[in-house]
User: What shape does this take?
Amino acid sequence: MPDRLGAPLEAPIVGTLALIGVGLIGSSIAHVARRQNLAARIVATAQSEATRKRVKELGLADEVAPSPGEAVRDADLIILCAPVGANTGIAAEIGPHLQQGAIVSDVGSVKGAVIAAVAPHLPPGMHFVPAHPVAGTEQSGPDAGFATLFLHRWCILTPPEGTEAAAIDKVRAFWTGAGSNVEVMTASHHDLVLAITSHVPHLIAYNIVGTAADLEEVTQAEVIKFSAGGFRDFTRIAASDPTMWRDVFLHNRDAALEMLGRFNEDLAALQRMIRWGDGEGLFNLFTRTRAIRRSIIAEGQETAAPDFGRHAEDELD
Amino acid sequence: MPDRLGAPLEAPIVGTLALIGVGLIGSSIAHVARRQNLAARIVATAQSEATRKRVKELGLADEVAPSPGEAVRDADLIILCAPVGANTGIAAEIGPHLQQGAIVSDVGSVKGAVIAAVAPHLPPGMHFVPAHPVAGTEQSGPDAGFATLFLHRWCILTPPEGTEAAAIDKVRAFWTGAGSNVEVMTASHHDLVLAITSHVPHLIAYNIVGTAADLEEVTQAEVIKFSAGGFRDFTRIAASDPTMWRDVFLHNRDAALEMLGRFNEDLAALQRMIRWGDGEGLFNLFTRTRAIRRSIIAEGQETAAPDFGRHAEDELD
Assistant: This one.
């Protein structure tokens, strides 16, 4: 699997692309849209003056608009890249300014709640194609983006029933142009799948880092020193953007609680195995889980380098 | 902080080093002992004929002995590198063959149980300095080792009361020579510290990977495809050696259950915040956990590269 983006497109997929919000995802879209010629022109806006200023300094857009309403005026494709909780307000604000036939999309990690929040604000004649690029790092803000963030990652589209095929195709082409694989599913299935592959993993990572921080018998300095025993892997995920993740749990409550319930049941069974010294039960689970990682590596979704390739030096002596 | 081992020692720290068990840790010790001249001679043994054969092929030792008893005969320092559960049997076997003044050490992730298992089998005049290098990867076996595994990692020594200072100093010098920082603490404190920085993180990683494997509403293929949302980080830890980890939980039961209890309490509170839509509570926890990662990176225990540096291509365009 090539680890580089291919040649830029000969003709852009959209005329004007508007990015509402320029954090890790928004800035990465700007980078890849530029490099791959996915849009003829990029307009961006962000809530804070500081971010808008930084977007200008970084040259991420052809134009930085002062508000969402002004950003979308001439846009063919509008991608909402703010935290999920901000979408209702943004949709209400941009609705009256959209040009006829515009396609609105987003990048939210939750889809059912986003559709409920955004769709009512879009006038007839507009298209809504919700999207979720399953990619990210623990960094946030306009400086965190890079063009290859979406390369070989999956982007899930969850168009509501009745969405025009041409609009779906355009959003699909955009993400394919960014290097992603695209899959279409319902919003409710998306929310269940992501609850287990993303939301609950984040929750338990945040949780164990919090537990470790609150201990009295073990000092913070000890937790930090001896983190290479496994703990440090969790701190990466637990360093993700707090606003984004608060919104994810507030807006995907039911699926997150359902998957968390499964996790808790299974953990109780494991706890019981430890208490009663059931070595066979522990060994069986610990063996079974290896296969999934092998598949993830085989599918190109993960590095095969031991310890994530943390060891810089040549490992063979 | 240099990411390479320094120059080899002019004179070795020990004459003959015996390694009992040659998995990831044992083979890494062999590599670094060779490269840094930590031992004049290395004798190794392993339980299975296949592993002993592989150790010979890889040239990891000067001599491959057919049994622990024969491996320790001329050894000045013996390091037990088998899974924790095998130590009682090995200690009983080597006891009668140790030469006077020999130092026995180990690399187990659990210390209280190892001391209880090994100490009674060592004749008077021998020294026992239990050690735990807090380092590893998800790979196992004699092919998995490399010389820089212990570089900048911590090695914890837990000598029982009354252990001779000269023996402790020798083991300390050995690990310092391997590039590690060394700390001394009691076995019971070690077991508590590692329960939170290593054992519980492994348990919850194994657990969530198991939960995801058992779902009916979400297919295995979907879990694999969309694992980049966070799940894949957990699969690395959940691919660790099953025998080793079974033994850890069987031999550090009380501390693991204590820390797991704390984790569960905290998770119940988080679950409640989600159910009742307590955005402020979620945001506060998610903010607090970022600081720990910054400290781990500042202390040189983790890479600062976003997403563990998974993105191979130049990230600036």
Q: What stands out?
A: Residues 212 and 223 of chain B are 7 Å apart (CA to CA). The two ends of chain B are 29 Å apart (CA to CA).
